[in-house]
Design brief:
The protein is mostly helical and 136 residues long. It has 7 helices and 2 strands, in the order αααααβααβ. Helix 2 packs across helix 3 and helix 5 runs antiparallel to helix 6. The longest helix has 15 residues. The N and C termini lie far apart (37 Å).
């Protein structure tokens, strides 16, 4: 299934925004996400960059409303899970998963209306398969 590039890019940008970093390593990972979902890599990177820049002008206290509005454009469960997967990929770029990232991931799952039990299993599976360090 084809997914909306702007929806995916918006949530990837939001994930990067929570970390505050969007450097070359992240851009390479964003290109990989584009490839995984058959998006044009340059267009996807540009869309992520534009959304990331836009988010830097939003107050942190207004971010939940911004994300809720973005989630309204997600067309269904399959797209929500694909976006969740891209968010998780973005969070695990550095092979470290912190308590703060876990909290943010659960918040994204709720915004995307993803079952939290399933969300936790997906995280557990990905962390185990990729030898990710847990930072408690």
């Amino acid at each position: 299934m084809k997914f909306d590039m702007k929806n995916m890019a918006a949530f990837v940008a939001a994930t990067l925004w929570t970390d505050g970093i969007y450097d070359q390593e992240e851009k390479a990972a964003v290109a990989d996400i584009a490839k995984n979902y058959e998006f044009d890599a340059e267009a996807f990177i540009e869309c992520v960059q534009n959304t990331f820049d836009e988010m830097n002008n939003i107050k942190a206290s207004d971010m939940d409303d911004y994300l809720d509005k973005m989630a309204e454009d997600v067309t269904g469960e399959e797209e929500a899970y694909a976006i969740y997967d891209a968010i998780l990929q973005t969070m695990l770029i550095d092979k470290v998963f912190s308590v703060d990232e876990y909290g943010n991931l659960l918040a994204f799952a709720q915004i995307l209306d993803i079952d939290l039990a399933k969300a936790m299993l997906i995280v557990t599976d990905r962390v185990q398969k990729n030898n990710v360090e847990l930072k408690l």
